[in-house]
Amino acid sequence: MGITERRQREKEALSQKIIDAAREIFIREGYNAVTMRRIADKIEYSATAIYSHFKDKDSLLRAITAADFRAMTESLHELGNVSDPIEKLRLMAHAYVEFGVTHPNQYRLIFMTRQPHYSTRVAEELHGDPEQDPYAWVIHILKESIRAGNLKCSEQDLDLLAQTLWSAFHGLVSLHISLGEEPWVEWTPVKARVDAMFEMLLTGMLARRG
């Protein structure tokens, strides 16, 4: 391995170490309470080393969020070969919940941690592309379902429908993350809850067939 390649690998390794430490601290202490020096202390590096990778705290949080969104989207895009839009929605619900319960720290940071407002330019970079944005991908599948005549909603209802589905399954994931280990509830299997919730939601969404 050459010197240049080794240095690049070391740089990438340190960048990942910074991201992992920052994610943990952001979740535990909140974005506003955390400083770059606090993150540097966590990984036992100087603050200068952090700034050589990320110019400020906002850019670090954006990098973490973008990486976690990509990981979630990749798990959803594994369903791309399913032709039936309704079945794709059902499998998507399972994949979303599976990501959340398997990667609780990433999920907390993306969906359960208050984040700073981004500029319009940054928001456009992070959102709206079905290849990178899970919400845009759900909108795409719902549009397919409506155009195939499977759902009784119109395309004007896409955001309402997507946000209703999202709210339902986010509630399931956040409840599992927060209280899933509590013994005072006899929790049923997560997959069973996903199926039951999807069937109940689907009853109101499906177009009547003659």
Automatic annotation (TrEMBL):
GO terms for molecular function: DNA-binding transcription factor activity; transcription cis-regulatory region binding. Residues 35-54 bind DNA. Residues 12-72 form the HTH tetR-type domain. Keywords: DNA-binding, Transcription, Transcription regulation. This is AcrR family transcriptional regulator.
